[in-house]
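# step 3/5: fold
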Amino acid sequence: MKWSRYSKFFQSKRNGWLLYNSASGAFLEIGEETVPVISEIMENAATFDFSGAVGLYFQLRNNGFLVEDTGDRDFLHILKMRRLSCNYAMNSMTLTIAPTRNCNFGCPYCYENNRTPSMMSDETVENILNFIKAYKSVKKLRIAWYGGEPLLAYRKIKKINQGIGELDIPYSSFMVTNGYCLTPKICEELNELRLDRIQITIDGDKETHNSRRFLIGGGKTFERIMNNMDTLLRSSWNGDIHLRVNVDATNCEQFARVYHMIQDRYEEEMLERIYIYPGFVSGEETNPDISCFFDSEAKGNFIAKLAREEKIAPLPIFPYIKCGGCTLIQKNSYVIGPEGELYKCWHDMGEKDRVIGNVAPHSQWNTALLAEGMVSGNYLGDEECEDCMLFPVCDGGCPQVRMLNNRDGKKRDHCSYFKNNLEGLLEVYYEQKYAQKDKIESISS
């Protein structure tokens, strides 16, 4: 019997002693009188005499703080097996399709600013449909409409959607759009696309947004986007809006303003369909002149401050196990550009040296590049990650950043925002969820 490596025991500045386990998700308040006992168990669980603390033993054991000698190792193997199985699943497919690289916005921080605009041909549309048909084991399909601005190629989207509908494969889709082209007609047709989610991006309040997110050649966009959101929420479409608020070191105070603005703008029924979250603008590689959040610690501090001071939790403040995955490391996930070219990362689109293949028949694939992303971008074999107590609740961060680090030996930050802010975020969570004593699970010896 030993103390689990995935346990965190700490003294909160305002709330006493707290105990968390990332493998089980258990989170307990510890009475002051029990602290010396817990400390002794942590030092040597194998020889500790639990005869006078049977209740404490079962609570620690049932919540994963005490494990068998091989318990942590066994858990690690099982977790890695499940995540590898998810990455290499053949019965599902995710395709990010960019019918165009054209965009009507001229955002200065856009990583696609140096990419050649283009529009998808009808031939490429047919090649995409045949590409999907070739994966006969696929029983579930997820489409992400991307760009450029995908609504500039709305007719191509409808044509692809119609073709997929004839393939008799269950599928759903979501869209990343700047929101400027969401006309009333399009809003009423979105259910036909099996579109359950739309991501719309703004950069702050009206003044800030219009100074950063403007039309090519100049032109304000904020009011049009907000009016289109109004139309969308009042249309027959039954999906949700994910409102991304771009945040960097120059406009971080804008997030709370936008959040409260949205709360005031919409009635409760509509607010249930709007998820507002920060999008941390990253320009370290593509636009070093932008003042950005470049590390996980800054992100964590920002989220904790919002939760504590504004009572807003735009991103999870309690770490829990999830099984997600990125296109780069998932076998049946691809990004398809307007010429039918295939990539393994959204950020690679338009970069010729990042193309792994094409949906056109008989095209050659760059298997080495494909393998580099799936293997070098995967965190499951990273010894440093395995030693981290947050391994169970972390997805390893951005796989492309990890792959680039392995390629050139640099130390770009890819860690979770929980890593350097765990105690502070758990404190906020405690205060939000367990402040009332009758809701606190307290243990004692």
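# step 4/5: annotate
Residues 285-292 have pLDDT under 50 and may be disordered.
# step 5/5: archive (pending)
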